[in-house]
From TrEMBL:
Ranges that cross the membrane: none
Keywords: Lyase, Signal
Signal peptide location: 1-22
Gene: vgb_3
Lineage per the UniProt record: Bacteria, Pseudomonadati, Pseudomonadota, Alphaproteobacteria, Sneathiellales
SUPFAM superfamilies: Cytochrome c (SSF46626), NHL repeat (SSF101898)
Protein name: Virginiamycin B lyase
Domain of life per record: Bacteria
Protein EC: 4.2.99.-
Species in which this protein is naturally found: Oceanibacterium hippocampi
Amino acid sequence: MLRLFLLTGIVAFAVARGPASAAGLPEGEGRDVVEAICTACHGTNQIMRSSGYTADDWRELIGTMIDLSGGPEEQRQIVGYLATHFPPNERRTATLVPGDVEIAFTEWVVPTLGQRARDPVEASDGSIWWVGQWGNLVGRIDPETGAMTEYPLPGEARPHSVTLDGVGNAWYTGNGDGTIGKLDAATGEITVYPMPDPAARDPHTAEFDHDGILWFTLQQSNMIGRLDPATGNVKLVSPKTPGARPYGIKIDSDGVPWVACNGSNCLLRVDPATMEVTEIELPLPDSTVRRLDIAEDGMIWYVNSRKGRLGRYDPGTGKIDEWPSPSGPDSHPYAIAVVDGIVWYNESGVRPDALVRFDPRDETFQSWAVPSGNVHAGIVRHMRRTADGDLLIHQSSTNRIIRVSLPDVLN
């Protein structure tokens, strides 16, 4: 009865939203049910841009989003409609590059359906924290036992990312309500820090510097923020370009924040003392950058998402190099991490979502399909290294947190 009640509530919510979000679906039995249920959480463009699935695979994918066991007729109609009108296709096929490097994936499927699990980060005790953006929660995995705990967040935080301070507290970005939050790892108590400016609507990604100051981006608000946990004081600054859309952020060895521009062809350097923002223009005018990372030698590696390229900026000389990604200009590279001199990133615009390895020594690529159960529907939106040199990634569409075991070291 509870499951049927939940399903009924979702249908009512979707109907209240109106038909606009369902535009474009072909006619056929089950269309109305798909419109009512699927668009309660996402637009139909997510369906129409998919790589398509068999009936069994659609059933599996839907099962990561919503429990339809209380409505078998609705499930039959949805699966039948999707399998008929959106069968497997090759419109977004990845170009996977073979090679000699071997890696291994370890997956955890998080408890709450449809939460869009993302942005895992490792704590000093080896536990893994993540956020469920649509589930409005922060989660923790014990990799040794597989035990998971989910902490519901206040209000409509809709956390976009999570990072950890020096004592293991989890700090999340309240992308939905304009807040930064701290979850005490020992007590579960949550402290909320609202933005001082109502125009600062959407904290996005955050990183701590060596002094324990939290730096964060606000993409749609076009701002970069600085929060001092000792005082709770928040300062905000905007780049010169109105539509720069600050996105990914990293801190270099000198404590300088570097920020990716998801709305313009630039990287941003922030003076940690004055918060003055310097813009570095990228050579291709239509470039946009989701994320960046900083190698041990100080090189800034970034993904040119709009152009389907991998880039490197040398802060010492100003030299910029870019390489086409294996799956081409529509591959939309997204997350990126540099581990022991090797660059890792994913191609989110193709299916399967490809994990790509780039070796700067000989400028060679190798890539793998990122597992996501038996379907390729997830997207890696952030990746970070572990203490022992592995990668933490995720598949947001299928609620999976993944550890990638990496064998190689650049000498």
